[in-house]
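For consistency, the fold was encoded as tokens, which produced the following:
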Amino acid sequence: MTDILKINESIVPKFPKHVRFRFNKPRKEWVILAPERLVKMDPIAVEILQLVDGEKTVKIIANELSKKFNAPLETILDDVIEMLQDLSDKGFIEENG
């Protein structure tokens, strides 16, 4: 069992090797694919996950979204951390490093 990852603004999130973030063309929706699991993503989650590349920190991701949507950085940062923490707790996100 791995240690629980605590998502914060300095973490560089990535998808584990067994997890894929893909566009399902027939259904025209973004999904997370993992062994025997499929998770449909809402539009906000898609915006966040499209920036998860194993190189950007959580703060950089939040900053890019803040600029794109003209929204307060702290609000976006809180939302990004909350969503990534939920996905991390389920094994869909890990720290690059």
Observations:
- The chain has a mean pLDDT of 95.
- Strands lie at 13-14, 20-24, 29-34, 37-40, 94-95.
- The first strand starts at residue 13 and ends at 14.
- The CA atoms of residues 23 and 29 lie 6 Å apart.
